[in-house]
Amino acid sequence: MPAAKPKPKVVRTSLAKVPTGIQGLDEVTGGGLPKGRVTLVCGRAGCGKSLLGMEFLVHGAVEYGEPGVCMNFEETEEKLTANVASLGFDLRDLSKRKKLLVDFVSIERNQIAETGEYNLDGLFIRLAHAVKAIKAKRVVLDSVEALFSGIVDSAILRSELSRLFRWLEDQKLTAIVTGEAGSDTLTRHGLEEYVADCVISLDHRVSDQISTRRLRIVKYRGTSHGTDEYPFLIDEEGISVVPITSLVLNHKALRDRVSTGIASLDEMMEGKGFFRGSSVLVTGTAGTGKSSLVANFSSASCARGEKCLYFTFEESPSQILRNMRSVGLNLEPWMKKGLLHFNAMRPTSTGLEGHLAVIHRLISQIRPSVVVIDPITNLVSASGSYDIKSMLVRLVDFLKMQQITSIFTNLTFAGDPQERTAAAVSSLMDTWIVLRDSKPNGRPRRELYVLKSRGMAHSREARELIVSKKGLELGLVLKDHLLASAVEGPSAVAAS
Amino acid sequence: MEKIPAKKSPAKRNATKKSAAKADANDFYRLRLYIAGQTPNSITAIANLKKICEEKLKGKYRIEVVDLLEKPQLAKGDQIIAIPTLVRRLPPPVKRIIGNLSKTESVLVGLDLQPAR
Predict the structure, then answer these.
(1) Residue A272 burial by Cβ neighbours in a 10 Å radius (0-12, 13-18, 19+)
(2) For site-directed labelling of A305, which of A85, A430, A480, B68 has its Cα 20 to 30 A away?
(3) What digits encode the pLDDT tens for the residues A197-250?
(4) Neighbours of A132 (CB within 10 A)
(5) Do A122 and B80 touch (CB under 8 A)?
(6) Contact with chain A for residue B76, Cβ under 8 A
(7) Where are the domains of chain B?
(8) Out of A57-66, A245-254, A293-302, A357-366, which region has the weakest mean confidence (pLDDT)?
């Protein structure tokens, strides 16, 4: 697979960056966090800010040779160690090897009486001592706002915090400071006032019982960054941000063609099939053979030795295997060869963003040439109504950037205006194949036509789709079903 | 938690009479003052503490002064954040008082030498 065209680089000599090692985050920040500066990560409780901080330190220690100190104001070393152990991080080992040091700072309000002037030198000395002990390059303060509950004199605290952040920068430490989101401010205590360079906001929303996590770069001085919200996922491998963006359209259009898996369908498309790296939408009412069509395409790509990643939101993989066997398609050998990967998810298991995050992660791991999403209808139903299209734009863009041929199915309902989801996504699609049922002379039959296919002289005729034990093939051209009538949608032609 | 044996502590700057009555722990005050270098606040705090102890606890207290610039590793054990911090190690419970100890009344309340008003 040819590499994607490198993005035009924005050169800023003054701004070095430090990779976080968090999947996707380094891409959306153009390389990581500002080196030797303080980054504020804010969000409500449970949004993942502590985890982001820990990952920053662990990746730094393990992958980038940068030891790190976590000054934690909320959780003890033991608790923190146990928490991140579930993500496969062994803090004990890292601290034994002097790569990571956790210092738990306990602040108990009732123990502190104020009797005159003071400053926070104790905190500075502790931090400096820890930094020196392991030659740390990275620091996380999680969450420094806890000090506000212990230090009553907020004027002192504020001037000390600003001194602390300056000190971190003087020491050339790359730091993350976390802060709890306030009701109408980024952080409850206005930490954003002290952080000039980079502010990242995390969000965890639950609507219709579906939770979605998003990350937004509020500010990143000296760097162009997307203002989009990026979906992210927290799973057993930690955080992964979906770095897909709709900022630019710079994917390369390929001229290679790939077979649809059905010779007669290839025939309708200049005899060659789809463009490689293009996006294909297959719409149709229930039982018109959408899944069979995409399964054929998957099988054909496996037969060429290309990997296929098949996301199914409706049927289990074993159900698909059984059903496809009934139309003469045996997918099992491809699975055994490691060419065909199924991923079955309940559409409502997470929001659209969560699904996108999973899709993105699997694509990065498996590196397929073909991705199937069957059906996209269910994915859309998982999203509520929020910005479906922009999310899909990003997904399709991402797939194109990777030069992956993608095929989406979409269930439509006869007699329904039904094209709503299809209409939302169709403009993103290079090829749109419509399947439908009709009953001319009382004999039911399936019909197929290519509604559009960008960049090629495709057939504009409707043909019968014959599904049998031997597989799928197309019958003769149906003369009474030319595209002109088809454009009005299946409901319009149902009467004919 | 790191413990420093009081007798050996090089950080010890000032100590009054040795604890004669171990059994009478509730009456004996072991105080530790954390400072960071000879800053005005540190000097004020030491002077204030001596004065208060001489007036209220004569003969039954002992003060250790810990300079964190010399012994930074000790900051963690007593959870020191602010400087100066006075820690009442005995009698229990452990108490922390921050500031340069100029507000005598707050110090007395903090040390349980005077009920809060």
Answers:
(1) middle
(2) A430
(3) 899 999 887 766 666 788 888 888 877 666 677 878 887 778 888 766 544 556
(4) 12
(5) yes
(6) yes
(7) 27-109
(8) A245-254
Contact yes or no for A113 and B97 at CB 8 A: yes
Q: Which CATH fold would you assign to the domain B27-109? A: Glutaredoxin (3.40.30)
Q: Which tens digits make up the pLDDT trace of A412-444?
A: 765 554 455 565 677 778 899 988 888 777 788
Which among A392, A322, A315 has a CA at the least distance from the CA of A353? Answer: A392
Bridge pairing between strands A17-18 and A33-34: antiparallel
For residue B58, give Cα distances in angstroms to A163, A274, B48, B89: 40, 94, 14, 17
B44 touches chain A (CB under 8 A): yes
Task: Report d(CA A126, CA A344) in Å as an integer.
Answer: 50
Yes or no, beta carbons of B80 and A106 under 8 Å apart: no
Q: Please name the member of A111, A114, A125 whose beta carbon is closest to the beta carbon of B99.
A: A114
Quote the tokens at residue B3. 């413990």
- Give me the pLDDT at residue A341, please: 93
Is A116 in the B-facing interface, judged by CB distances under 8 Å? yes
- Chain A residues within an 8 Å CB radius of B103: 114-116
Nearest CB to A119; choose among B79, B82, B102: B82
Number of continuous H segments (helices) and E segments (strands) in chain B: 3, 4
CA angle A283, A289, A291 (to 5 degrees): 80
Question: Which residue in B has a C-alpha nearest to residue A118's C-alpha?
Answer: B99
Give me the domains of chain A, ranges plus CATH numbers.
17-241 (3.40.50.300), 257-493 (3.40.50.300)
Q: What are the tokens at A157? A: 């605290």
Q: Which residue of chain B is at minimal alpha-carbon distance from A124?
A: B81
Nearest to A275 by CA among A289, A260, A286, A291: A260
Backbone angles phi, psi at A445, to 5 degrees: -150, 160
- Length of chain B equals 117
Instruction: For chain A, positions 141-170, list CB contacts with chain B under 8 A.
Output: 147, 150-151
